[in-house]
Design a protein that fits this description.
single chain, 57 residues, 44% helix, mainly alpha
Length: 57
């Protein structure tokens, strides 16, 4: 998930919002949508903790 969050954030500019979207192919990878969301949020938090988040405007 860390790689996915990093790849999604790469083209984003200052002040942009990145909205992860569900993919049908990932339905068998997670127990439910909540688990997938929790994992995305955790990866984003780790990215923020590393100081690699683009600052807001």
């Amino acid at each position: 998930m860390d790689d996915a969050v990093e790849a999604a954030a790469r083209p984003a500019g200052t002040g942009d919002t990145v909205l992860p979207a569900s993919a049908a192919a990932s339905l068998d990878m997670f127990h439910d949508c909540a688990e997938r969301g929790d994992l995305i949020a955790a990866a984003a938090s780790r990215r923020r903790a590393r100081g690699t988040v683009t600052p807001e405007r």
